[in-house]
Amino acid sequence: MTVVGRARLAYVSRMRTFVLALLIMTAGCTTNPQYQGDVVIGAFSFNATVTQQSCAFDDGGSFGLDGGGFAFVGVLSYDTAKQELFLDTDSDPKDDHVGSLTGRNFVLTTSAQRVTVCNYPVNMEETIQGQLLDITGGCASLLLDGGLPDGGGAEPLDGGVKDLTPSLVCATVVDVSQATIDGGQPCPGCTLSYSLVGTLQTGGGAP
User: Fold this and answer.
1) Would you list the domain boundaries of the chain?
2) pLDDT band at residue 60, thresholds of 50, 70 and 90?
3) pLDDT at residue number 32
4) Around Cβ 64, how many Cβ atoms within 10 Å?
């Protein structure tokens, strides 16, 4: 097997434990997945592109397979009683990203351990922040200052989350590890950032 092939296999194994690096979908999925909450917003095809990289990992590569990003499928769902938003990338609710939704604006978080060049695991905290939109033109149509074009609908929804019919997700992803010491060996903190674009899958339903 080529070096590239070995790197790809290592990358897939690593991402099974780090849900956002989404080739996790290659792992076995349940036939009838159960998503958290009472509203399934939709299944989205995501593409993540690295925008900042100061992390040096020793568990299968620095970041995406092509050196700059990766693609995955995720399902967004919502619990109206708890007012919590969920992102499921592997049909396993135990490792969902969890967060909040205000109008069309959301924040999701999770954490996982990664092995760095320091040769011991460090905890990575991941935050996804963005908007659920029903605009045309893609994320490039957003204003340069991070706002929405006229009619973008960033205001709270009178009818609640069930009024959401998003076809597009525009977000940023930031992974951060803090400086740590293990056995007297210091490991510097680092940051890994992505831009994230998600498009509603044909039919709009969850798999």
Assistant:
1) 3-27+36-200
2) low
3) 59
4) 19
